[in-house]
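pasting for the record
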Amino acid sequence: MIFLRDSRYNPCPGGGMKRVFAIAAVTVWVFALVLLRSAVKDFLWTHPWWHSFLVAVPAIALPILASFELRHSGEANTLANRLRAEANALEDQLGTLSAELDAERNKHLRQIADNTKKPVTQAERNASTLRQHLRANVTVEQEHGTWPGTPEIVEVQNRGGGKLLRD
């Protein structure tokens, strides 16, 4: 047999176990009254009515207080579940906002990095051009003529603005 639980027919929103315990407590109370009927009758015949009242108050008050407590715990569970759902939603929102903030921060850091780059100098542009021609034979011209042979570009350094040529 398969039992399906539908919340529309559940009289206890906190769960069915509370109802089971309440029914069990009432059943035990009624069973005790049936078993102890003669003892209760003898007690009532031999003692004044206010003794009977003092004995009956806890037995009557206990189920009433228990029902109030069951109702209160159901409300507390409902409230706790609602607050837990709100906390989860806020954590999701926090994650989304943190991701957006990180993206915006990274964008601004890229802008700062772009704005703080030093401009490319003429020497760096020349070095970049020479790097494109590594291992190439070149002709070197100076004020007093040209170099003999065809030297090869071996290495380009930015420091000192020099270039190393090899014959």
